[in-house]
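Weekly structure sync - notes
Attendees: PM, LS, DV (DV joined late)
Agenda: review two folding runs queued last week.

Item 1: First target. Sequence and C-alpha cells pasted below for the record.
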Amino acid sequence: MQNIIITGYAGTGKSTVGKVVAHILGWEFIDTDQHIVEREGKLISAIFNDHGEEYFRTKEGEAVQIACEGENRVVAVGGGAITVQENLKVMRATGLIVSLDAKPETIRDRLEKQEEVYGEEAIRPLLNSEDPLKSIRSQKAERQPAYATADWTVHTDRLSVQEVAEEIVRIWTRFSGKVVNASDSIKKSPEFVSIVNSRTGECPLLVGWSLLGQLGELLNDIGRPNPAYVISDNIVAGFYGDGLLKALELSGIEAKLFCFEAGEVNKTLDTAGRIYDWLAVNRAKRDETVIALGGGVVGDLAGFVASTYNRGMNFVQAPTSVAAMMDASIGGKTAIDLKQGKNLVGAFHQPLMVVADVSTLVTLPRREAVEGWAEGIKHGLILDPGLFEIFESEKERLLDLDHLIATDVIKRSMTIKAGIVSLDERETLGYRTLLNYGHTLGHALEAATEYGVLLHGEAVAIGMMAAAKIGNGLGITANTLVDRQERVLRSFGLPVNIPQVDMEMVNAAMALDKKAEGSRLRWVLLKDLGEAVVKDDVPDTLIRDVLSSMVH
C-alpha cells in the first residue's frame, strides 16, 4: 500500500483533511476533482450540465488512474468514484482506502456554508431540490455499500480537521505495520474457516467435529493459557462442561466453571452481577480468559461480562447452537437485556477466536436446531443466493443435522458474517446493518413476549416475513421473492405470522430499537435475492397494515 485514498460523500471533508494528512506525512496531495477541473477548464457542476454524468465518470476514472499510479500520495477522490468497480480496483491495489462519513444534517450544513463562500456554481446540484436533506439522505444511502468497502471509516461530525487527519495517519501506521495475532498453525489448520479483522487484531474462526477437546491447545497456541473462566448455562454445562474442563487441564490450563439457568430471561444485569462476584472471588485478572460455552444467550452474557470486568478480559467463543455458530458468536457484539427491550445494554468486545464444535449440535432439542437455521436463511437472502438455494434443496439433510452439509452451511454463513464485520465492525457504515434483516420486528416480539414464547430464530423468521411484505408494499421486493422466502421458512417449520401479542408493547420495543436513526426506524429490505437495502422512510401506515395482517 503506497498511497492513502480518501473517499466519502460530499461535505465530509475529503480535500481539506487530505491536505493535512499529506502535510503530516510529507507526501504529495492530489484531488481528483480538482485535476478534472484543471484539465477541462470548467467547474464540476458545469461538466455535469454540459456533458452529463457518463462523460464526467469517464474523466474521473482517468483521474483516479493517474493519481494512484505514483507512490507516497494522499488522493482525495470524488464522492461517487468508489461506486465504479474499475476505480475501486485501482484504489484497492495501490493504497489504503479511508472513508470519511458524517450525518446527513452535518453534510447539508457544510454544503450550505461552502455555497456561501464559493457561490452556488461551485456546488453540485445537491442543494437545488425542494428537500436537500432528503436528497442527501437518499443518495448517501445508495452509495453506502460502496463506502463500506473502504479499509477504514472516520466519522467527522464532531472532529476537527486536525483530529481527522491524525486518525487517518494513526490508521495508516497501524495498517502498514500490522501485527498478525492469529498464528500460522491456526491458519493452516483444516478447521480454520476465516478471519475477522478488527481494531484489536485478528479473530480466527474454526469449525469442525470434536473441537472442544482441542480448545486448550488452541489457547496455548495463541499464548493465552492460564487460567480460564468458563461461563455456561446449566443445560450445556451438563453435556460438555466437565469434558471441557478436563481438556483444558490436560493442556496445562487451570479452569473454573460458572453455570446459570438457561434461557433468555436470565440474560440480565442480575446474572451478570453474580458472575462478577464469582470472578472477584477467584481473583480474575485482566489478562486472563473468559470462555463462553453455549448458545447466543451465553455468548452475549459472557462476552458482556468479559468486556466490562476489570475494564476488559480476554474472551473466547465456543458456540454450541446453530444460530450462535453462524451469527451470534461472530462480530464482538455483547449485551444483556432490559425488560424494555433486547440487548439494550452492551459493548463491542471482539473474541480472541471462535471455536465451533459441530458435534455439540446433536444434543440440541429439534426446535432449537430448527430456529438456528433462520440466521443462515437470512444470510442467503441478503448476500448469498447460492446459500439460500441450499436451504431450498437440502432441507431434509439440514433438519437431520447431516454432518457434511451442516458443517458446510455453517462455514459458509460464518464466512459471510466475518466479511461483513471486518468491513463494518461497529455498525457505523451501514453495511453491517444488513445483517439485521428481520431483527427490527424480531427483537421487538421477543421483548413483548418477555422472552418466553418465541426463540430468537423464530422471532427473526416472523421479522423477515414482515420486512419482505413491507418491501413488497414499497415496490422494492417482488411477489415471487416474498413467496419464495415464505416457502423456505415454512418448510423448516419456522413461524411466518405474529402470535397473539400486545402490539402496543411491540411498537414500544421497536421504538427503542438500536437500529433507529433519530425517530425513524431503519428497515432492511430485499431488493433481490442476495441484495438488500436499508430504508428509514417507510410510512407508518404501511408498517401498521403489514403487522396487522400478520397477527394470527
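Item 2: Second target, run right after the first with the same settings.
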Amino acid sequence: MDCRTRIVSDDYADLIVDFDLEEESLNNTAGDFCFYQIEDNLRIFYANREELPKLSLSEYRYLYLPVCYGIMQSGDISEDRSFNTSALEETGILRVQRPPLALTGAGCIFACIDTGINYTNPAFRRPDGSSRILAIWDQENQDGTPPEGFLYGSEYRRGVINEALNSDNPMDIVPVRDITGLHGTALASIAAGSNIDEGNTFLGAAPDADIVVVKLKQAKPYLREYYMVPEGTPCYQETDILTALKYIKGFAETFKRPVCICMGLGTSYGDHGGNSLLEKYISRLNTLRNIAVVLPAGNEGNAGHHYRAVFNKNEGALFRNAEIRVGEGTSGFVLEIWGSVPDFFRISVRSPGGEEIRDISFRLNSTRVYDFVYSSTRIIADTLLVEQISGQQLVVLHFENPTPGIWTIEVRAEEVSTAATCDMWLPIRQFMSGDTYFLEPSPYITITAPGTGRYANCVAAYNGETGGLFQESGRGFTREGGIKPDFAAPGVDIPSVVGRISGTGAAAALATGAYLQFMQWAVIEANSPLVNGVEIKNYFIRGARREESLNWPNRELGYGKLDIYSTFELLRRL
C-alpha cells in the first residue's frame, strides 16, 4: 500500500514525532507504515492500527497524539448579506486603504486554512472575471493530483480555476466546494474579498491580495471516536493542519512574496501553555521573514468549560470539589486535568447516584478502566506524572455514557510547595453532544490552541458597534502566564459574502487583512523588507487603542483594540 492511501485511510493511525530517524533505517524496519517530514525533526507517521497499541497515554506520549480542532464560529451564519464598512472603519483598515497610504494587500498573498472556498463568488475574482486565487489544495478530494512534494489531496492552480470559471460547469473541472457551513468562504471574504461596486456591494480588508486556500479534510473516524466528537460536527486533525502550513510556507519561498495565513480553528485540548508541536511550528513560522500566522482566541470565554483550583501551603483544607453538570443527551466527553509542578495531586470522581472512584493518583503512569454498577457509565483514566514537554502532571478522563446530573471531581493536593494549581478543561462547545459545564467555572485561561503559542498572533473579539467585549471570546492569560490574547478586533455580526458571522474566527480574519496591508507597506513598498509576524504584532500592539480606565495588558483584550491607522500615525511621529 502506498503512503497516499495510508494517509487517508482510517485503518492507519497518525502520530506526530519530534525526533529524527534515518530514512534508510526506517525503510529496513519491518512494519506497515510510512512517514512524511514537515521540517527538520518534525515528522508525521502513518502506521497500521492493527500493529499499534490502543490509544492511551500509557502507550503513547501525549505530545504525539494528534488533537482535533473545530471551527471558531459563534452560532450560524445569518442570511443577512447586507454590507457596511463599520468593522473596516473601526479597525482603521478602511482609512489605510485610501490615499495617501492606499494599502490594499497588493503584491501579498492571503492564505486560508479552513473548510474550503466558493471560488466562483465575485468576491474572489478580478473585474475582468478572472480568479484572484493562486491555488486551492483540497485535502479531501483524492481524485486529482496532489501538490508537488505532498502525498494526498488534489491541487488546482489559477490556470485551471480560470478554465473552470469560463466553462458552463465549473465543478466538473475544479470540484471544490465549501459545504461545511461556508466558514472558509466567509473568512476569506472578510480578509481579502474584492472591491465590488466601489465598496457598496462588498469590500474585504485586503481586496488586491492574491489568495491561496487549503480545504482541510475531516479528521479520521478513529480520532473522532477517541475524542468523542459528535457525529456530523466539523472536525479537523493536527496532522493535516501541519501539512497545510508547510504547503503555504512554500508559496512564500517560491513566489518571494509576503504571506499572511488565517486559520479560524481552535481546540481546548492541551496544556494551554503553547507547548504542542503545532503551536511551536506556528511560532517558528511567525519568526520567519515575510510570514505571519493569525489565530483566533476561541469562543470558550463563557462556555463554563474551565475550572481552576488553587491551593496555598498554609491553608487547612487541601481539597476542592469541581462540580460538572452533565446534560441529557450527552453521550460522552473527554476531561483533561493538569497539575502544577512540583506539587502532587489525587482526584476522586463521584457520580450523580453517589458511586465513587477514589484516589486516582497523578503519580502513576497508567491507564485504568472503571465501570459503574448502577449505570452504564464507564470512565477510562489515563495518568502521567510528567507530561513530556510542559512537565506538568496530567490526568485524562474519558466519560462514556455519563449519567445526567451533577458529577463531582474532588482534587486533593498531597504536597504543596508554595501555591499549587490544578486546571480542568472540557472540550470546545462543538465537541460536546449535550449541555455540559462546570457549576463554578473560571472564564480565564480559556484561549484555545494554537492561539496560546508563544509567538502566535492571537486575536480576541469585541462588539464593534457597542465597544463591549464579545462574551464568548476566549480570555487569557496562558497557563504559564504568557500574555494572550495580543489584541482584539471586531467579531460580532461581521459582513461576509455568505452572510453575517460572529466569533473570534471572524476577528482573526479581519486582523489578517490588516497584516496584509502592513506587509504591502513593509515588504512590497520596501519600508521594512525583512519584517515577520512577530514584528507586525508588536507594531499593532503599539498602535492599539487602550482606554485609560483599564489596566493593560488585560485578559480580555490583550494590549487593546486593533487600529492599523494609529500604528501608521505612530510611525509617522517617530
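Discussion on item 2: The chain has a mean pLDDT of 94.
Action: LS to circulate a short write-up before next sync.
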